[in-house]
Amino acid sequence: MNKITRKDATHLLECSQCYCSTSRYDYYMECIILKEMPNDRLKIMVFGERFWNRPGDNEKKHIRYVDKHRVKLI
Fold this sequence. Notes:
Layout: E1 11-20, E2 23-36, E3 41-47, E4 61-67, E5 71-73
Antiparallel strand pairs: 1-2, 1-5, 2-3, 3-4
């Protein structure tokens, strides 16, 4: 699993960052589906660090559990 890189991503995770009640920034993060859970959720490996492009953030990986409707095919 450590050899998986951002280039292997097959899906996009729909995300949003809220700054206050009237300001919201929507963006997508590349991800790979690892497993489908029984309760309409997915176990995914997501790449990057929010929407910032800082050096070294591109290959950061995190395991997340998210609702199916937030993941789209690339």
